[in-house]
Amino acid sequence: MSDFFTGRHRELLLDLLRLPSVNPLEAGPDDPPSRLPEILRRYATAAAEAGFSTLRLAGPPAACLDRPGVPSTVRAAARDPRFLADQPSLLLRLGPERPRAHTVMFNVHLDTVAGHTPPAFDGVRFTGRGAVDAKGPAVALLAGLRAAASHPAVGRDVTVLLQAVAGEEGGALGTYGTRPLLEAGHHGRLNVFCEPTGLRALPRATAAMTARITVAGQDAVDDHPDAGHNATVLLGFLAQHLAARLDGAVPGTRVCVAGLHTGRTHNRVHGTGTLLLNLSYRRTADGDRLKTEVARHVVDGLHRFTELFAPTREFARTAREAARITRLGWDKEGLPALDDSDPWAEELLARAGARAAAGDPGFTCDAIWAAGLDDAFTTVLGPGCLAANRAHAPGEFVDLADLEEFAGVVRRLVTFFAEALPAASAQRPP
């Protein structure tokens, strides 16, 4: 096996893993402050050794949040002017600016979910927050690009763009990291989003929307529970009702009945609370249908709750006023889904060693913002797997062998792209 992932890359990965970069939307009281700007500076320094120049290292413009599809949680966080300033993205380039047909772009995120832990490497496996999602893939990407840069056509005939972004985690969905860079035209004929896919080339990415069902009623003392609105009973009923009705309601979608919160004390009726649903879809039209189904079943659920609990003693008031005190809102909605196809690019990926996607529906990531790009093909590709490698969970890890294999795929993909330019120009997607 070729040694693309050298000792210097191992040191760089451990260095990046030591520096916390928890997305502020994810951070808990025990998480250390993010040092993402420092991480990006170190990443840019390492990339410079492979010939990359830094085009941009800065926070996004505030205007990027004045757009459809920006989650309400992002808008709320950005009321603090330090939020965007502390969440910069990095744009690197190897070679001069060239037409899209002669450009390949890679995107990787360096923010992480909560739960930062000290990293470790035992000679075979890296552990630590971000090991597989996605600091490990980010360093393996650099290793592969450094190897590809030795090919005479890379940088001379083709240009490589590299986006190292913030704002992928925490439900931000790239709205202040990837989206502004793509809309500014920083993409290529072939675009690769580096996420853990088991080295399968996924030409699709699901989008997600988040429904927030809020009950705004009155509390009551436990000695007179009938005097208040019982948000726990109402939202608990709606959670089960929606789980049953939405499961499979729109083929190709997934429904996650997520957090339900009313209160922690035992000696009162909690009159306020929230229920969250996260809803993913492979096609934008399916997302629209699912949104309609959610609204319909919330109304139906409230009607059924009233019928069931109106005759009771303790919950009659809640039943009688359920529709008035319950509101359906959307933390995020209207996001596009990626579903791409291009035989030429898919054959190139297969030659480079990427595995077939088969029927894998993909998952939600920043690649959604590449949906609909003209004269371009986009895929999601990277080492390790979200579930098997414990991304977003304690004990997150990635194996050195997987990083090495991904670096080799990157090297071959870039060099094959450079050698296949005439065919690429003749076979652009419609």
Automatic annotation (TrEMBL):
InterPro entries: Peptidase_M20 (IPR002933), Peptidase_M20A (IPR050072). One of its GO terms (molecular function) is hydrolase activity. Pfam families: Peptidase_M20. Gene3D superfamilies: 3.30.70.360, Zn peptidases (3.40.630.10). This is Peptidase M20. The lineage of its organism: Bacteria, Bacillati, Actinomycetota, Actinomycetes, Kitasatosporales.
